[in-house]
């Protein structure tokens, strides 16, 4: 197994694709976080200038609105590891180089398992790059008063890396099922950039902002990993500011919906539910793709 994994790493590292995708991944994460961080800071400045907020004694450093920049940047940047995963098997199938791999490996299950392990590791590498870019952008664009604390930052970063790994595996599965790198990339990009985000907004609008079917779809559940985490963190800070005063469930639900929308996860469910749903979607495509190639004829 170790030799097969080393061989898979060599296949990746001897091409330009890994860094050709990683560079824009970092740039997009950095730029998105920087821009959203600056916008969020401007909005926070306006809010905290209100007499009502001042009279309530609420300081600008009371709520970590900077998490919105972090989550937005992570969510949008995951389209790059998604593409990276989609090309894992589809490129070999298209060029028929998979035939040599199948014939020289001890068995197909061993080869496919090695690919799976390899792309889990690469998904984590892309996740670290995304988190690094998003973190630097958030630091550069956001006022220090609205930045999250270290523990909060690490939790969102961890969820971002998990999301990236799962997107990579989902892409690998779709590419393995379709067998065409061009078709796989086009289909996944259309879904990730257009169909997913638009459907989330439309479905959430019909549901009055509450968690709904949008959060049960791949894009919505993936965004919920980071978006719901950010919303929960901000909600806890607001509750602490309330100093034990009763807050209605309706008010909590409305606030959660608004924060998830702001964090790029409209209609998402709670963190644990989003995680289970997205793991389910990723494993569905991933396992189906590997099973398809376990039985595929070689030429």
From TrEMBL:
One of its GO terms (molecular function) is ABC-type transporter activity. It comes from the Bacteria. Keywords: Membrane, Transmembrane, Transmembrane helix. GO terms for cellular component: plasma membrane. The chain crosses the membrane at residues 21-43, 63-89, 110-133, 153-178, 185-207, 269-291. This is ABC-2 type transport system permease protein. It comes from Herbihabitans rhizosphaerae.
